[in-house]
Each structure stands twice: as C-alpha cells, then as structure tokens.
From TrEMBL:
Leader sequence segment: 1-25
Pfam hit, one: Peptidase_S10
Record-listed E.C. numbers: 3.4.16.-
Record's protein name: Carboxypeptidase
UniProt KW keywords: Carboxypeptidase, Glycoprotein, Hydrolase, Protease, Secreted, Signal
InterPro entries given in the database record: AB_hydrolase_fold, Peptidase_S10, Ser_caboxypep_his_AS, Ser_caboxypep_ser_AS
C-alpha cells in the first residue's frame, strides 16, 4: 500500500489533580483508581508505549509551589512556550531542523477544577513510516488518505469560481452498467444526478453529492439522505457496498442492487464534511471541527437542493447514516428542526405569491422552507461516548473476545475514561483530545487481546486499513470515463480523509444524545439499529444510551418487551419500540447492516417510514422477555 505522510497531532499528557490532602490514588466520584494497580498485560504495555499514564503518583502541591506564578489568578488559561530538548541531533532524517519544527509545551488550567492543570506536549510534523505510525495504523486512529485542498485554478467547475452558481448538477450514466434493473426500469428513464454545492459559510468549499430518484415512485417517495461516518469517510462507501442502486463487480462493471434504498425513496448521498470523497476546498480554513459547522453546511445544502428540486418539497424527509454519523445525524436533525420552527429559508423575490410548492408567504414574497423532518435513523453509531465506551469490556466478554481476567483489568480503566469524558463536557475543548486517547485504550485493549479480529464484524479477520477491501470502489471512481461522467475533473477521490479525521478529534467524545429528547417530544421519530456482531459501535453500548436517555416516554420504553423483527417468515432481529423511539438489534450483521443483511435493512427502512416496524407484510405477534444479565442487556 502506498505510504502517505500526513499532518499529525500527538498528545502526551499528565493529569495534575488538586486535592485537599495528599492521596495515593485519583479520586473518581467517591471511588479510586489505583495507577499502581494497572495490569501487567498487553493492555498495560500498549498504555505505557502510548505514555497514556505516568508511572508516578499524583502531583498535589501547595499553591505557592506552582511553576507558573505566585498568584494563579494572574496566569491565563493556557501558558505555552516553544522548546528544544538539550543534546538532540540538530536535523531529522528528512533534513528538517529542530528550529524549523513546531515543538511546544504548555499548561492548560482546567475550568472545572479548583487548581488543576494539564501539561501538554505537542508537535506538528510529518508522521514518519515508523513504529509510531504502525501503532496508529493498528488502532485505526487515522484513515489512509489526505484531504482535497486545491488551488482555485484547479476547480473542476470553472476558471472563475465567482461565475458558478451555488449548485451545479448534471445527469449522468455510469459506464459498464447493465441497462435495465430487475423491475425493467432503464438507466435512461431513471433520474441519476451528481453535483457540487458551494457552501456559503466558506472561503471556497464545494460539497459533492449523488441523487438517485426512486425506481418506483419518485413523485411521492420520501427523500432520504445518507451520511457515512469516519469522521471523514465518503458516502460512496455506502452507495456501492451497502444500500445504493448499484454494486461493483470484480470486472469494474456495475450491477443493480435488488435491495437498494432507492426502491422506496429518493436517495441522497453527500460527501461531507468538506475534504471527503469528491468534496474539496481552496482554503484549509474551510475544514470543519465540530457539529455546528457540519450541520450548518448540511442544512444550507438541503435548502439549495430543495430549491433545485421544488417538486420534492412536499415529500417526507428522513436523515440516515451509520458509525460516526451517530454524531452528525442528531446535530443535523436538530438544525433542520430549528430551521423549520424559526421559518428560516431561501427568499425568492416574486411580485405575486404562489405557494403551491412552498410552505408560506410573507408580504407578497415567496418564502422557501424544506419539508418538515419526519425522522432520523442511526445505524451502529457513536452518539453518547460516556455510556458506549464502558460497554467495550462487557460486550467483548459476552462475545468471547477476551477472558474474565482481561475484562476485569479493562474495567479498572473505565473510571478514568468516565472522568476524562466529564472533563470534556459538551464543548469540545482540549480536554476532549485527552479523553479520546484515554478512552480508546479500552477499545485497543480488546483488539490487542482478540488478535486480528475485524472490529466491524467479529466473525471475520481484519484485512486492510479499514478491515475490508474497498479498493474496487476507488479504482472505479478513478476511471477516466467515470470522472468525466460525474464532472469532477481532476479532483482526487478521498475515501477517508486524514485531515478531516484529525480536525474532528475534539468533537469525538462529545455527547450528541442531549439534543434528541426535544426532537422526540416534538413528534420526530428516531430509529437506532445495530448489527449484533459489530464491536466498534456495538449494540450493547447503543442500547445503554437509548435506555438511559431522559424523555417523557423513557420509563414506558424501558418497560416495553421486545418483539421479533420478522423478514420472510424468519426472525431477523429484536425490536423494541415506544412512541417516537425504536431500537432494533439486527441478527447476523456487523457494523454495516445494509451490506450484511440487505433485505432486512430495506424492510426496516420501508416499515419505519410507514410507522409499521413491527408489522408490515411479516407481522410479528409474539413477544419475548429478556433473561440475560442486567449489566449486559442494559435494561432491555
């Protein structure tokens, strides 16, 4: 595999906790986590190599002994300085001098403390092909490719970006595709489009998207948008391997996907955040760092898309996706709902007001708003890390990935993970980066003990940088005939962007569940589904946050029995529903449910949009109660 160097941000940190008296442990909510009792195991070895935990006791000092000032009040929240270690070779192997590289150290004053400071060391450099890179690759901490940041003159749209409208869309036909689908529809008859949208809140960013009209009922079918996670992985992964209209065959030809979600919806795939897939920018400042930036971009795109397709504005609208989209989706859903309630929209100046396709009129002006959001669905997502990360040891033990002793050792790290997430809060600060590193020792501890397991599907071995071989997609999208058909010019297709991934690290440990109850109370439906063999965003962690979420229907939801989710007369999963909330554990599936169980996934989407998840053409009439342990089943 071709090696790519990339901008890395490495944090080595020590936590200094201020206490009223010296202690031999870190106080964690009336419990203590003994640093000295970390296990002598592969997990500890990994922790030591990453320098995640110091070997010494906690530093509790007198105020007057602070290295920063005699009066801590006079010191800013961050104190940083450039440094050079003594006795260091002046130049690195690639010729860079110590003076040229950005090596800095500093203290960060924790706002939610009496007197605690993080010490932070970081360096910005090109990560070498070394032991450090190998470790990062093994932990899957960074995807393999960089971001699309191009010169203005290299834009595929025009020599002058100012001359290009906000949305540029074209019909396309992929080469080497079977002319007719199984139901007789021809490629020429179906509306397959691709386009670029110019983000208004950017210096020069363009968001790429695919749009597929429904094969069967494009006039009335709902509009469904799909978001892939990463963060920084393109939605083409789902389009070609999960729920899109086509599948890629080994000879680089395309065949129709019998269970594509365009069977029941008008389907949108968006390459986001900017820098992912075919999306690009001419300015690095356009790379997003949090959910506000991501959701604002998606909302602006949605407004422009419905303006381009006004006949779709009366159709129901649903947001779907998986993995890190467990962050994107709640934030995006909240943004759409906020816009609808505030009557935001694109103003189109008309002398007379015709509201046939639009929501309302004001003073003779036509005011556009997107269709009211009907629901959002999260598949094997990361939504509430504080409840999902502690589930790793429990899930791994139940599935036979680790021993009881290894489980017990990993559980000792859980309090420190929980503390770090608490410090992170919901603001996405520097402490969130520390939390990311601490909590991922739980995941890496399982992986190291399990030995080569595919953490997206524990029934399989991990092969390649993403544990799957998606190279055919990259080969196909880099065919000159395909690029010409899509109008992307020389823009490089970035399946997973390292720069986007790194930019979103401060967002990783944030709890995005906090905005969901308001959506439920306002009548918007949520479906959380999870394949039972996924480790990285496992069903257990997802069920825990769903059950723990505080809303008016919480107690009734928890008290509701599971029912079988039946497809073609066979149980395809376990379903639990009350009011606007549904949770579905999908049998015989890993992280990517539509790839592993395409028929069940299509049935799931169709029934959910029809408000008949437990009914439809395969009515489930029997109920079951759960007999597994409370810790494992999370009150289900």
């Amino acid at each position: 595999m071709e090696k790519h160097t990339f901008l890395s941000l490495l944090f080595h940190f020590v936590v200094f906790i201020a206490c009223s008296s010296p202690s031999s442990s870190i106080l964690l909510n009336d419990r203590s986590f003994e640093i000295s009792n970390l296990p002598s195991s592969r997990a500890e070895k990994l922790i030591r190599e990453l320098n995640l935990f110091p070997k010494l006791d906690v530093n509790v000092i007198d105020v007057g002994d602070s290295p920063l000032a005699s009066s801590e009040e006079e010191v800013p929240s961050i104190v940083e300085r450039s440094f050079r270690f003594p006795n260091i070779v002046s130049h690195s192997d690639d010729g860079a001098s110590v003076e040229d590289l950005g090596h800095r150290a500093g203290y960060y004053k924790l706002p939610k403390s009496q007197g605690a400071r993080f010490i932070i060391y970081f360096e910005i450099s090109n990560l070498p092909s070394s032991r450090a890179e190998k470790l990062i690759r093994e932990l899957n901490l960074f995807p393999k490719l960089d971001v699309n940041v191009i010169d203005v003159g290299d834009s595929p749209l025009a020599s002058s970006e100012e001359e290009v409208p906000s949305i540029v869309e074209r019909s396309f036909r992929f080469p080497n595709i079977v002319s007719h689908s199984d139901d007789g529809a021809s490629v020429e008859d179906l509306g397959h489009r691709a386009g670029y949208y110019k983000l208004p809140k950017s210096q020069g960013a363009r968001m790429f998207y695919f749009f597929f009209e429904s094969r069967k009922n494009k006039k009335d079918a709902p509009v469904v948008i799909w978001l892939t996670g990463g963060p920084g992985c393109s939605s083409e992964l789902a389009m070609f391997y999960e729920n899109g209209p086509f599948k890629i065959d080994k000879n680089m030809s395309l065949s129709w996907n019998e269970y594509g979600w365009d069977q029941v919806s008008n389907l949108l795939y968006v390459d986001q955040p900017v820098g992912t897939g075919f999306s690009y920018t001419t300015d690095k400042s356009d790379i997003r760092h949090d959910e506000k930036g991501v959701s604002d971009d998606l909302y602006d795109f949605l407004q422009a898309f419905f303006a381009e397709h006004p006949k779709l504005t009366d159709n129901d609208f649903y947001i779907t996706g998986e993995s890190y989209a467990g962050h994107y989706i709640p934030a995006f859903a909240a943004r759409v709902h906020k816009g609808n309630k505030a009557k935001e929209g694109l103003h189109i100046n008309l002398k007379a007001c015709d509201c046939f396709f639009f929501s309302y009129c004001v003073n003779g002006r036509l005011v556009f708003t997107s269709k009211i959001l009907q629901g959002f669905a999260i598949g094997n997502g990361l939504t509430n890390p504080a409840l999902q990360y502690p589930a790793y040891p429990d899930y791994a033990l139940e599935m036979g990935l680790i021993t009881q002793s290894e489980h017990d050792r990993l559980k000792k790290i859980v309090p420190l993970c929980e503390l770090s997430i608490k410090l992170c809060g919901t603001d996405g600060t520097v402490s969130c980066l520390a939390s990311y590193l601490v909590c991922n020792t739980l995941f890496s501890g399982v992986i190291n003990h399990a030995g080569g397991v595919n953490y997206y599907d524990i029934r399989k071995k991990c092969e390649g940088s993403l544990c799957y071989d998606f190279s055919d997609m990259e080969k196909f999208l880099n065919l000159q005939s395909v690029r010409k058909s899509l109008g992307v010019g020389d823009i490089e297709f970035v399946s997973c962007s390292t720069s986007v991934y790194q930019a979103m690290l401060q967002d990783w440990m944030r709890n995005l569940e906090v905005g969901i109850p308001t959506l439920l109370e306002d009548g918007i439906n949520l479906l959380v589904y999870a394949g039972e063999y996924d480790l990285i965003c496992n069903w257990l962690g997802n069920s825990r946050w769903v059950n723990a979420m505080e809303w008016s229907g919480q107690e009734n939801f928890k008290a509701t029995n599971e029912v079988p989710f039946v497809v073609d007369g066979e149980e395809a999963g376990k379903l639990k529903s009350y009011g606007q909330l549904s949770f579905l554990k999908v049998h015989d599936a890993g992280h990517m449910v539509p790839m592993d169980q395409p028929k069940a996934a299509l049935k799931m989407l169709k029934r959910w949009m029809e408000n008949s998840l437990s009914g439809g053409d395969d009515v489930a009439t029997t109920t079951t109660t759960t007999t597994e342990g409370d810790d494992l089943v999370a009150q289900m």
